[in-house]
């Protein structure tokens, strides 16, 4: 009888641990190829992962998305969420919403193939988030329309866009945000940016590449509105890729 009571007590002690661990392990590992995909993902909770190689933090590899005419709608609500993965986008429409703090968004788009005619609409609410986006790298990439809205402080991000004909709209509300955005190799690159917050560190680099046949000149436009105290803004703009 004593042994039975001890067993029950020990089992009750284990129960909270088991439930808590399960609540932290929402994961989606996706390997998709094919055209005309419609992908809808809603993850709510703590420690969600949409995986494509995280390794030591679990959920290593997958999230390989390949195809044309893809529609994606991803909502992640909670803290310490992670989105990783190599992706190919042609004629793709992406709607991404992240709500929470200490989230990581790391995408390599078009590394091994083209990433043309894409629309990105991203809405992020929260603090201490980290983003690292590489768009196109050495592959073909044309006609990107990218809208990014961030509300929150102490976010750090690095977004590199290597593409032609890019429209890049950024609205940031929050303090102590630190970010670098680079546009390169485009005939027509445009950035419209509004930043409201103190103590920001903002770096904008824009350089055109080789002009298409029949085009006499390439150019970039930066339209920025900063409302900040103790901010640091560094803008570099070049009309060649050199």
Q: Can you offer a commentary on this structure?
A:
This protein is mainly β and 242 residues long. The chain has one domain (2-238). It is built from 1 helix and 19 strands. The protein has a 9-stranded parallel β-sheet with strand order 1-4-7-9-11-13-15-17-19, with no helix packed on it.
Features:
8-stranded parallel beta sheet, 242 residues, single chain, 9-stranded parallel beta sheet, mainly beta
Mean pLDDT level? 77
Supply the number of structural domains: 1
β-strand amount: over 45%
Low-confidence stretches: 4-23
> Can you count the beta strands?
19
Structural class: mainly beta
Number of helical stretches of at least 4 residues: 1
Amino- and carboxy-terminal Cα gap: 82 Å
Topology of this protein?
Layout: H1 2-23, E1 27-29, E2 31-33, E3 38-44, E4 49-51, E5 64-66, E6 71-77, E7 82-87, E8 93-99, E9 104-109, E10 118-125, E11 130-135, E12 142-151, E13 156-162, E14 164-173, E15 178-186, E16 188-196, E17 201-208, E18 219-227, E19 232-238
Parallel strand pairs: 1-4, 2-5, 3-6, 4-7, 6-8, 7-9, 8-10, 9-11, 10-12, 11-13, 12-14, 13-15, 14-16, 15-17, 16-18, 17-19
Quick description:
With 242 residues, the protein is mainly beta. 9% of the residues lie in helices and 53% in strands.
